[in-house]
Amino acid sequence: MDWAILNKHLTIVESNFTRPRRLFTFWIVFFLLLTGCGSTMNPFDMRIVEAMSTQLSDMFVTDEVIVYEKEELDALKSVDPIPLKWKNKVSENEIASFYVVYENDAVYSADEAGKLTKYEATTGKQLWQVKTKHRFSAGVGVGEGLVLLGTFKGEVLAYNESGHMLWQASVTSEILSPPQVQNNIVVVRTVDGRIFGLDAIDGKRKWIHQGATPPLTVRSTAGITLSHGAVFAGFPGGKMVAMSLFNGNIGWEVAVSHPRGVTELERMTDITSVPVVSDRLVCAVAYQGRVACFAINDGTQIWTRESSSSAGLVMDSDYVYVTEDKGIVSAYDLLSGASVWKQSRLGSKKLTKPVIKGQYIVVGDDQGNVNLLRNYDGVLIARSATDGSMIQNPASPLPDGFVVQTAKGGVYAYSTQF
C-alpha cells in the first residue's frame, strides 16, 4: 500500500458535513485507499483496506447505530416544549458550522456567505449586519470588546461591537474553530495543527505552536480553551497540552488516550473538542479513547474512564457531562470519575456538546431538536424542534435561556423559565 498517498489525502470529514456529503466522502476515501494500494496489493494490505472500509462505513453510514422503538419515539413527541423566545435566520451553511454567542446583552451569529449579524438578546431584533467579501469558516468568538471570525483562506478578522473592522491577520491555513481572546491576546487554531497567539490590538503575530499530526486524523472544529493565563488544547493522537498564553511555551503535556488497534483507523484517538477547566482540574475526552481529568497546575492524572466522543464535555461543581458516541449523554462524578447516569434514548445518533444552564443540560441533535435534561439524573424534561436541519455546535447560554444555530441558518432563542 502506498501510505504516502493515504497520508496526503485521507482526512476524515466527520463534523462538518451532512449525511449525503459523508457518504460521498466515504466513497472518495475508499477509492483513494484502493488506488493507493496499486496492483501489487498483498493479503495483509487487503485486510487493512477491508478493516478500514468497514470502520469508515460505521463512521459515515450510521443508520443502524441505534434502533429506537416506536413507543420511545412517540414518548419524545409527548415531552413538553421548551418556550421559544424568538427566532431569526442567516444564510445556510454547507460546510462550516458556526457558534452563535452571547455577549453584553447581544447575540452574534455568522454564516459562510460572509455575513456577521448582531441581535438584541431579549427580543431577537437585528441591531446590525456586516456583509463582507470573505467566506467565513469559523466563528463567532467574542471578548474584550472584540468580535472574531476565521475564513477558509486562513484570515483572522476582528470587529468591534459596533460592527467596524479593526484588523485582519493571516495564518497558515483554514480556520475551523472560533478565535478566542484573553489578556489582549487572540488565540486561533488552524487545520494544519498550528496554534497562533496574536496581538489583540493589531493582529500581529506574537507566537506559534506546531502540534504533532498523525497520518490519519479526524477533521474537526476542535478549538482551544483559555483560562488561568494558559492555553489548553487537545490534539490528534490523544495528547493534551497546557501552554503559556503569553509566549506559547509548553507547561505540561499529558496523554488523555493512547492509540490502540492494528489499522490507522483503529488507532485514531483524536481529541476533537475543547478541554474544560475549573479552578483545580482540566478535563478532556478523546474519540475512541477515554475521558480523563488532570490537575491544572502540573497535569497529574486524577482519574480516567473509557469513553468515546467527538462532540465534547462540560463540567459543573459536581459532575462531568460527556456527549458520547451513538447518541449517549453520560455524567461522571467530578472527583472520582464514577458513572452517575447515562441517557441513551433521545431519538438521535449524533448530539452536540452538552451545555449547562442552571439545573439543566442542553443538547442539540442532527435532526434539529434541542433537549433539556435534568442535571442530576439525565431525565428528559423538555424538547423542541427547530427547522429540521442539523445543530452541529453547542448552545450558547443566555441570562434566562439559551440560543442555537442550525445548518440551514436558523437562529433560535429559548427560555429555561418554565
UniProtKB/TrEMBL annotation:
Coiled coil: none annotated. InterPro entries: BamB, PQQ_b-propeller_rpt, PQQ_rpt_dom, Quinoprotein_ADH-like_sf, WD40/YVTN_repeat-like_dom_sf. GO terms for cellular component: cell outer membrane. It is found in: Cell outer membrane. Keywords: Cell outer membrane, Membrane, Signal. It comes from the Bacteria. GO terms for biological process: Gram-negative-bacterium-type cell outer membrane assembly; protein insertion into membrane. Residues 114-343 form the Pyrrolo-quinoline quinone repeat domain. Gene3D superfamilies: YVTN repeat-like/Quinoprotein amine dehydrogenase. Part of the Bam complex. Part of the outer membrane protein assembly complex, which is involved in assembly and insertion of beta-barrel proteins into the outer membrane. Belongs to the BamB family. This is Outer membrane protein assembly factor BamB. It comes from Nitrosomonas ureae. The lineage of its organism: Bacteria, Pseudomonadati, Pseudomonadota, Betaproteobacteria, Nitrosomonadales. The gene is bamB.
